[in-house]
Amino acid sequence: MTENSIALTGTVRVRVLHRSDAGRMAEAYLRNREHLAPWEPVRAEEFFTADGQAASIESKLGLFIAGSEVPWVLVDGSRIVGVMNLSGIVRGPFLSAHLGYWVDKDMTGQGIGSAAVEFAVGAALTELGLHRLQAATLPHNAASQRILKRAGFEEIGLAPRYLRIAGAWQDHVLFQRILF
């Protein structure tokens, strides 16, 4: 994966997360705290600080170096306007990963999520050689489901009490895309 950013749409670019992003990540999460709260785990206050983000980045970059995660940021100039990752990368006969993403509350509905997911699909196939991507959404997250379906993901089922989101174990709709 290259450290250079790649154009997604308009002025938004995607690149691998950097250690120097801690302050900008904290700003992005603070700015989007209410927007993301229904879709993410309950976060400790430390998470919304530069120090908290620095610790998170170190963890993610360790997984990146180990080959089990690819953490990207979506940037508009120097401002982080979204996050995307491939996590749980498994090699061997599985060749699979989980896709996760979010877009800044002020940037939704502009095709950024769709462009980011298409980018991730391309990177998963051409750079990582993965066979399959999986994504999960809350049943009422229609916007994310539309993005996944446009990107060729198919719904494969419902996972009861799949993840602890917004303080409660919640069902998720599972999607997959077979890449080759």
From TrEMBL:
Q: Among its keywords, does the record have Isomerase?
A: no
Q: Where do the N-acetyltransferase domain residues begin and end?
A: 12-176
> Is Iron-sulfur among this UniProt entry's keywords?
no
Q: Record's InterPro entries?
A: Acyl_CoA_acyltransferase, GNAT_dom, N-acetyltransferase
Record Pfam families: Acetyltransf_3
Record SUPFAM superfamilies: Acyl-CoA N-acyltransferases (Nat) (SSF55729)
Superkingdom as given in the UniProt entry:
Bacteria
GO cellular component term, pick one:
ribosome
**What keywords would UniProt list here?**
Acyltransferase, Ribonucleoprotein, Ribosomal protein, Transferase
Can you tell me which family this protein belongs to? Belongs to the acetyltransferase family. RimJ subfamily.
The protein's name in its UniProt record: Ribosomal protein S5-alanine N-acetyltransferase
The UniProt gene name for this protein comes to: rimJ
